[in-house]
Structures are given as structure tokens and as C-alpha cells.
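pinned: reference chain
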Amino acid sequence: MRALFLLPVVRPMQFRHLCLYRIRPEALPNLETLEAALREQPFAPCGATEPQRVGWVPALDDESTAYVHSGSGTGTWLVRLREQRRLLPAGVIREQLEDQVRQIQDKEGRKLGKKEIVRLKDELMFTLLPRAFTKTGDTLALIAPEAGLILVGAGSLTKGELLLNALRLALGSLPVARPAFSAPIPAFLTAWLQGEREMPAGFTLEDACEIADEEGTVRCKGIDLVSDEIRKHLELGREVRKLALTFEDSLSFTLLPDARLANMKLSERLSGELDSQFSGDKFENLDAEYQLWSLTLLRLLPRLLSSIGETAS
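pinned: its C-alpha cells
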């Protein structure tokens, strides 16, 4: 009998990390205007001497057509920015530059000035760029006009700003701001573990956190976060900088001190529901996953932000 192997469902639409931005709903264009604007700024690969290129690609998949995908009933739009970089390791440039400088100094019997070295470096990079490998990656973003949120699936604020700057270039302007809070987020996280403040409804503690003070950082994993061990750290005046949480048996994540969400993962329950709905139509599968992420995040974020003291902008 021939063995049957079941391949895992591949899900390209994963939001592993999230950067949050606030925007006034009236500052956003309508769907048709946004679609037209992104089509005017499509992605094109790096030229031979270009270190980086960014541009928009169809939101769901390279084979789809819409640059802005809108799911029924979610009130959100999905966009996807592609970035390509030429990889020139700094060590390689430094080594070759030092070699060229040494050769010229030995030949001419003099020390090169700073301007000459800068010019040599520019010429070297111009020569090396066409031979450099390229690295290409995509960044997804959910735009929620009614909620006044732009959620960028990036692991750093630098990556988040890259996508926002591309939106500004396409639209002309984009008045966004990071969420503001009445007190530092670690103060709320610490109060939750100390029992001085109730956690928001629907959220439960995972088994990982990061506690820190001026003397150093303690990373805890696989431990009861309301244990005596954690309590003793907090009694010494240390505060909780990062906290792992679960929302409604739907999504686990780590809340960071700047309100970013990291290490997001759908629960086994939701992953199982997606698996059970998996069909032969790629776009239906992608749309189902997009809608699940949208609805889950739009339930989670208002509760979370209010519980950590978000103030009106």
C-alpha cells in the first residue's frame, strides 16, 4: 500500500509583528483613489547601480490584480509594499577600500585626505553594486478607516516608516501618529502582575515576560507570571517591559513597551478552522485568512489600547 503524506497548509499571509499608527478617518482617501494611487507607484527591480527600490504590488498575491484588497464585512483594506535591496556587506566594502587606499598611498608616497577616501568609496560601491546579490521582501499593512488605524506588519518602526513613506509618496500626504498614552506602558504591565490593576477582559497571561531596571534585564520564560519569583522582582522596584499575552483563545503575542505587538500567532483553534475551510482556490484561501486577521485584530486592539491608557490624539 502506498503511504499517504499530508502536506501542511502554507499560509503566506502572516502578521508576525505589528506597528500601530493612528490616522483621522477623514484624512484617508476612498478605496478607488487609493487603488489608483498605488498603481501609479508599482514595484520595479533595482537597476544595476541602485542600492534599493520600493514599490507596490497586488495586495493578496502576485497573480491577483487589485493593489488594495477589501474584504466584505471587515471595514479594512489590505496593501502590500515590496522592497528590494542590493546586499553589499560593510566588511567587504571596508576591506576593498582599505586595500585601494593603501595601494595609492604606497604608489604616491602620501596620505589620502578624507574627501579623496569618500570619493574612492563612492566609486567602489558604484563598481560593486551591479555584482551584488539582491534581497526582496514584502510588508503587509491593514488600513482600518473607521477605526482610524493603520496596522503595519513590520518588526521595527523603521520598516513601518518605510511603508508609510511609500504611502505618503503615492498620496501626497499622510498625517499619521503613533498612539499616545497617559503613562508609560510598562507601568500598566507591572500593575497587572502586581494585582494592582485588572487586566482587560478577554486577555490572559502567557508564561513569558521581561523585567528590567537600571541594573539589568531579567528574561523569564516557562514560568507562572504571578509566582513569588516574579513578585520578588517587582517588589525590588523592577518593572515589566515585555509581556506575553493571549486574546480570547484566538491570538497570542508579546506586548512591547512602545505598543508594538511581536511574535503574533493564531491559536490552534483558529488555525484549525482555517485548515477546515481550505479549498482549491488560492484567492479564496488568502481572503479568508485576511478577513480572520482583520476581524481578530479589530476586536483585540480597542480593548488593549484602552487598557494601557491610550489618550485621544
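why pinned: The first helix runs from residue 31 to 39. Helices lie at 31-39, 90-108, 114-128, 157-171, 185-194, 228-235, 268-277, 282-307.
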